[in-house]
Amino acid sequence: MIIKNTYDVSDELLEELKHVSVSTASHTLVEMGYRNAYMQGILPMCFPEGQSSAVGRAVTLRFIPLREDLVKQQYESLTESPHRSALESIRKNDVLVIDTGSHMETGVIGDIFTRRLRYLGGQAIIVDGCIRDLIRIKDVNFPVFSKGIHGSAIPRTLMSVGFNEPIRCGGVGVVPGDIILADRDGVVAIPPQCIEEIVKSARDHDELLEKWIKLKLDEGASLHTHYPPNTEAKHEFEQWKKENGYV
Amino acid sequence: MIIKNTYDVSDELLEELKHVSVSTASHTLVEMGYRNAYMQGILPMCFPEGQSSAVGRAVTLRFIPLREDLVKQQYESLTESPHRSALESIRKNDVLVIDTGSHMETGVIGDIFTRRLRYLGGQAIIVDGCIRDLIRIKDVNFPVFSKGIHGSAIPRTLMSVGFNEPIRCGGVGVVPGDIILADRDGVVAIPPQCIEEIVKSARDHDELLEKWIKLKLDEGASLHTHYPPNTEAKHEFEQWKKENGYV
Amino acid sequence: MIIKNTYDVSDELLEELKHVSVSTASHTLVEMGYRNAYMQGILPMCFPEGQSSAVGRAVTLRFIPLREDLVKQQYESLTESPHRSALESIRKNDVLVIDTGSHMETGVIGDIFTRRLRYLGGQAIIVDGCIRDLIRIKDVNFPVFSKGIHGSAIPRTLMSVGFNEPIRCGGVGVVPGDIILADRDGVVAIPPQCIEEIVKSARDHDELLEKWIKLKLDEGASLHTHYPPNTEAKHEFEQWKKENGYV
Amino acid sequence: MIIKNTYDVSDELLEELKHVSVSTASHTLVEMGYRNAYMQGILPMCFPEGQSSAVGRAVTLRFIPLREDLVKQQYESLTESPHRSALESIRKNDVLVIDTGSHMETGVIGDIFTRRLRYLGGQAIIVDGCIRDLIRIKDVNFPVFSKGIHGSAIPRTLMSVGFNEPIRCGGVGVVPGDIILADRDGVVAIPPQCIEEIVKSARDHDELLEKWIKLKLDEGASLHTHYPPNTEAKHEFEQWKKENGYV
Amino acid sequence: MIIKNTYDVSDELLEELKHVSVSTASHTLVEMGYRNAYMQGILPMCFPEGQSSAVGRAVTLRFIPLREDLVKQQYESLTESPHRSALESIRKNDVLVIDTGSHMETGVIGDIFTRRLRYLGGQAIIVDGCIRDLIRIKDVNFPVFSKGIHGSAIPRTLMSVGFNEPIRCGGVGVVPGDIILADRDGVVAIPPQCIEEIVKSARDHDELLEKWIKLKLDEGASLHTHYPPNTEAKHEFEQWKKENGYV
Amino acid sequence: MIIKNTYDVSDELLEELKHVSVSTASHTLVEMGYRNAYMQGILPMCFPEGQSSAVGRAVTLRFIPLREDLVKQQYESLTESPHRSALESIRKNDVLVIDTGSHMETGVIGDIFTRRLRYLGGQAIIVDGCIRDLIRIKDVNFPVFSKGIHGSAIPRTLMSVGFNEPIRCGGVGVVPGDIILADRDGVVAIPPQCIEEIVKSARDHDELLEKWIKLKLDEGASLHTHYPPNTEAKHEFEQWKKENGYV
What positions does the entry give for substrate binding (chains A, B, C, D, E, F) (predicted)? Predict the structure, then answer.
């Protein structure tokens, strides 16, 4: 039995997901029964000023510690290593998610790969391990997330073994086609069939209520009565919505 | 025998403590026989531009890994969980210090709690664990320190079990009423009876001498003679103070 | 709201629990919705030959990093420190569970404390941290579990701050009165109201089936058909039970 | 380009490999240019008394953190999950090598799976993660290696996603068909084309020399002259061989 | 046999090395057979705006956990501790590299030492451990790299035991006289005899080709054909160089 | 200023130290003001049955990560590498203490070195890192302590750089000539001038009292009155000594 996603998410829906924060999506997923969607310890190394989030479909790539004879064989061809194939397979609104096994002893992404991915319409690169050449990646000015930096390149210790398999990243299982949402708080991998509910829940509901709660807190309302709102506070909120033309 | 502080520190003294750096206070405490006051690995996630330090009295809060039946019971009431009670108990010049057991698998503080604490006169939040929704915490623009970020919220893995007990934070024992001093170098928990000496020592002494030593180093003085100053250098310093109207 | 257990377990039921393995109890608890009951990384340092398991009610004890003035005060009395009080409070069929915050820099239990606990009817000591003097603990020949060994004693780095509070141990929340089951595979903390079901489930069911499955596997049966048994294998099992006088 | 082994090793050669220690094989591989063959931190949890080593061809299995909807789907069939298929695919002289991503939060192998693997002619199980029910595995009395023990079972946190792919284990890349050699010192994964040289090197050479060196050391010979032997010591060794009928 | 460098690098060559990035140098060294030159986990804590890199000859300093009687003896003299001697020994274009054993429990460098080192012509300070008083180090505005921050000072837990010995830093062996290259991506320790080749390789070769590859990638060229360039792309590059006056 | 011991301990005193346990020595040292003498995480990998402890004077040895050119140079001579020189320098009642920087990626001691050290009168080997070939070390049957096992040998990743320098081992500073005491509870490094007091304190005092306390505990005495003994219990003890002919 192959572990795979069978649900497609439209580009329009991806666009709407950009208005949801990683923190909100992560919390909503726990409430929907998906306990393990936020990638632990994977933070933005480069994120363009003014961009609020990055969203796309997961293309996955997996590295293992190299074996000297097999990696030599792999490098004899310029076109056939899984990491190059994964990069060249990127389509509009894809996100490349890389499993190195939390390997901190070499970098697997530099500015050249980042540049190519951007050209192909990719939206972000997520690495459970290290990137290299952060200085030049910052020139490309593209969303790149990782656990750390290492100066050396792939052939120091790793070889790629496959792409578009289910992988691990930041302690989270990532299946090709998962929807990746990344912002300055980190990265969440969302099962595609959950996007609609997450977007709807964020849109209809939370934001107006949250805005009002913050207003009330700034006026001195207590957590006990206003977060979450008790019956009385809910009435107050309904009243406020009417008075301010939201209903 | 209850482990507790029995010494009160006035708001005026807290105000003076703001002029002492975490680094100076931490070093002075070691010299006074308190070896373990600096919290390891707890760094500013949000710190208002232009503010030099945050100072206040510790209110403590403790989480343990949740038990499914007990946490359900806890969430049935809006007013009685220890974490909400701790927050609502905050008074002017308090600092909330949270022990999650260095738990990195969920966030315990977001922008709503931060906003409430600020309203109540709290001065900072210190978490031995993760915060969430850093982006919105930055909108609140308030001193928040932690070991990391996680997208999910408390009920993913934790439940609160008590407040104003002695706790651990960053490898340091923190007793309610300890004085917390936090700046861009991190956080130190100070026994209240030590504040006066720390403030006095910083005020009378070190700063003028340190200023002069830096002047001398910039003129080429050697560490061997000037840091700390040997007898000759001390005379030189006394002379300089007279010549420059400090005595 | 105080986090506490409200269910009592009889000594008879505890006795029956001794026939359930930590592994079975841990798995059953996950199926009952309690995901986090097995203590990670806490293994037997001393376990009497011939004893299969240790069972008892949790008495909890908590240490924090010491503060020099407060620990001095604590040691001025021989009778009032929380760790001594916790030990002296032990009754028949209690297990002492100690939270040091995974502190590996000193030992909190030696042979003297172990000896006293045994005299009082305690069944085991579980430490999320280090023990000391393992050689002499082995002379006492009593079930003691920990994360490691350290030669030094409590006052090197720790002070006790309370007992019979909810604590953490091995990444598990432990509430006073939880039932502790420990064997050579480690330790599980069981909510008291779950014991009956765990004992019943182990007794009625699993053991005979498991015995039969092992017999079949040793004859070459496939996991696909016999573990868990499919419809046909279930009939086979019923047949076997009849033929062997189990029904 | 698929990363795979293309070299077959006969059962006879495997038999001979049993006379080589993990330590010797690991060192020889470094000298042959394979730097990374010894699996770090993976030690025997169960190893039959009197057996000196376990040898076989790697069958690989990979787990990732579970996703709730996909794991549910996986468990609806008894025959199709990758971990069951991997186990049932075991043939004589295979070794099952499991990549859980060093996941310490649940056990993936218990006594039932171990029993089945033994029946099918498997030689050992190697887990980069945890096993469960060590007590009953010891009844099976079969070579099982892991990083630790956890009481819970697979569905607590993991799901299997593939078998006979290249994987990671103990920081080593393992390709299906690699030859696994395991003894009380741990585990080494050997490229199949290297076996002949390793066996030959161990047989012809090292053992007699090493025996003689140990004899000399016990008589007081210095490392400087005898380990490795300098020109004079080599003559001495040749002489000794002649005198003792080895040549 | 003393482990030492015997090759001198001129100040002019050091100047040229400033144009090479840490990432390029680290990768070139792996290709030259030096696998382990990039220091893992040691990142800039302070780096002057506008400065692209820091370069100099390694002066090494080593700390061990203090012994109370010996450290007392050490502090009785102002001029003779190894850490003070190391600092005072700094000459133009030196870099101070400090081995604390990855000790995270006290800071070994503050603003005073940084100031003195800058006056003496030092180019950077690299610490495998913690610094203190980062706020004031930022006033000095000098390249300082470390693994973290701690508020306390040396005598809390450490004592210096030697300088200009071979040491460890970030998992890399550093021998006095090694050439240190540090930029925003971290730090690399280069054997002095390799500098010429690294500088030459970076100058002649890579930069123009890399510039052209980036141009081509931004026009949509594939990694498969252009990175590294295949035969056709190499011709294209030669053509481009001629057309643009580079040859 | 050279950090060194200036106090000699006689072989007779070493012999007496064998009657003190690591746990007692470690605790006494903390009371004497030496807080950091027990080596954390360094446990017996091989310890002869029937031997109670190992005692000797520290000869130290230090490794750093290898540099390819320098290690090649080192291996060109059989007699001059620091690790071989350290081994050959061993005299009666020495203990070899090895600092690898907690490096877990290769083994530095095998059965050959162990055999040589035993011949020369060495008493134990202590490694802050890994040993190799534990199976054959067990044939030598000699006290060897380490943090773990690795199959590979020194030249995989390390080179020795010096011996009889102050080093780190298990988080403890070790100075040549320190007295090493090792038993099944681990290892403690004792400043030589402290041996006499430790031996005396253990001999005169503790053992008889402790024997009596254990007797009383087995009769049901409380920790509150008998450990440590209060005034009344002290009288009781004096009485008991008289009655039993100890005074």
Answer: 132
**How far from the centroid of its chain's Cα atoms is residue E220's Cα?**
36
Average pLDDT, chain D: 94
DSSP state of E54: E
Q: Which residues of chain A have pLDDT under 50?
A: none
Confirm whether residue C132 is marked as ligand binding.
Answer: yes
Q: Is the pLDDT of residue E12 over 90?
A: yes
Residue D204 marked in a binding site: no
> What's the token pair of residue D74?
């996986």
In order of B94, D26, E231, F245, the CA distances from E246 in angstroms are 66, 51, 20, 102
Rounded-to-integer distance, Cα F146 and Cα F75, Å? 25
Of E84, E134, E150, the CB nearest to B40: E150
Q: Which residue has the tokens 């738990």?
A: B103
DSSP code string of chain C: ----------HHHHHHHTTS-HHHHHHHHHHTT----BPTT-EEEE--TT---EEEEEEEEEEEE--HHHHHHHHT-SS-SHHHHHHHT--TTEEEEEEEEEEEEEE---HHHHHHHHHTT--EEEEEEEE--HHHHHHH---EEESEE-SS-GGGTEEEEEESS-EEETTEEE-TTPEEEEETTEEEEE-GGGHHHHHHHIIIIIHHHHHHHHHHHHTT--HHHHTTB-HHHHHHHHHHHHHTT--
Could you tell me if E199 lies within 8 Å of chain A, comparing CB atoms? no
Is B216 within 8 Å of chain A by CB?
Answer: no
pLDDT band at C123 (very low <50, low <70, confident <90, very high): very high
Specify the pLDDT at position E102: 97
User: For position B217, what pLDDT does the model report?
Assistant: 92
What's the pTM value of the predicted model, to 2 decimals? 0.96
Separation CA C170–CA C179 (nearest Å): 15
Structure tokens at F153: 């040998």
- Substitution target in D38, D215, D226 with the highest count of F β-carbons within 10 Å is D38
The mean per-residue pLDDT over the stretch C150-176 comes to: 97
CA distance E150 to D211: 53
Q: Is the pLDDT of residue E150 over 90?
A: yes
Superfamily of domain E11-202: Ribonuclease E inhibitor RraA/RraA-like (3.50.30.40)
The whole-angstrom distance between E82's CA and the closest CA on chain F is 7
ipTM above 0.90, yes or no: yes
Q: Give E178's DSSP letter.
A: P
Any idea what the Cα angle at residue B182 is, between residues B179 and B186, rounded to 5°? 125
Q: Is D12 exposed, middle or buried (0-12, 13-18, 19+ CB in 10 A)?
A: exposed
Q: With beta carbons less than 8 A apart as the criterion, state whether B140 and B185 touch.
A: no
Burial of F2 (0-12, 13-18, 19+ CB in 10 A): exposed
C-alpha distances (whole Å) from A73 to each of A88, D2, F191 are 20, 10, 56
Q: Is the dihedral of CA A104, A105, A108, A110 positive or negative?
A: positive
Q: What is the dihedral of CA B151, B155, B156, B161, to 10 degrees?
A: 110
Q: Where does the pLDDT of residue B235 fall: very low under 50, low under 70, confident under 90, or very high at 90 and above? A: very high
Q: Tell me the average pLDDT across F31-60.
A: 97
CB C145 within 8 A of CB C124: yes
Q: D116 contacts in C (CB within 8 Å)? A: 217, 222-223, 227
Domain ranges of chain E: 11-202, 206-243
Mean pLDDT of all residues in F103-114: 97
User: B129: phi > 0 → left, psi -120 to 50 → alpha, else beta; which?
Assistant: left
Query: Residue F133 in 3-state DSSP?
Result: coil
